[in-house]
Amino acid sequence: MKKFVLTLCLIAGIGIVAQAQKFATVDMGYIMKNIPAFESANEQLNQVSKRWQSEIETQMKEVQQLYKNYQTELVFMSDDMKVKREEEIIAKEKAAQELKQKYFGPEGELFKKRESLIKPIQDEVYEAIEEISKSKGLDLIFDKSSAMSAIFVSPKLDISDEVLKKLGYSK
Length: 171
Description:
By secondary structure, this protein is mostly helical. The chain has one domain (22-167). It contains six helices and two strands; from the N terminus they run αβααααβα. Helix 5 crosses helix 6 (160-167). The longest helix has 38 residues, at 36-73. The protein starts with a helix and ends with a helix.
């Protein structure tokens, strides 16, 4: 009997706590799409990324061409020439890999550029969300554009347009 009463009290307590919390949702994808500075920064990143990728591909094509030439001329080379050409090909390939790492590595130029262009916009959005959550007394805000496991979210809980309005991008 004690277990039953304890379980009943626990369930009732959880229900009261769950009702006391206020929550809302935002759609960060929708918000970011409606901020022109974000779209501009994204386009800049795409252009830089394509330019760097092209540069790396050019170097890799040079390596492939060197290797093809090496294979066709292999029968005519002395052992010293073979070693010298192999080292040249390896050095070129290593330089291309280092360039790829420099541009696209975890702490590469693309990461730094993304940090400098997009992070200030994201910070501004998060500050607006925080201000709205404090003014409305919200305890929890979900991003419905990410891998949220809610099957249905009522549109009246979505504060995305309110965030855009706070940032000066009202529709």
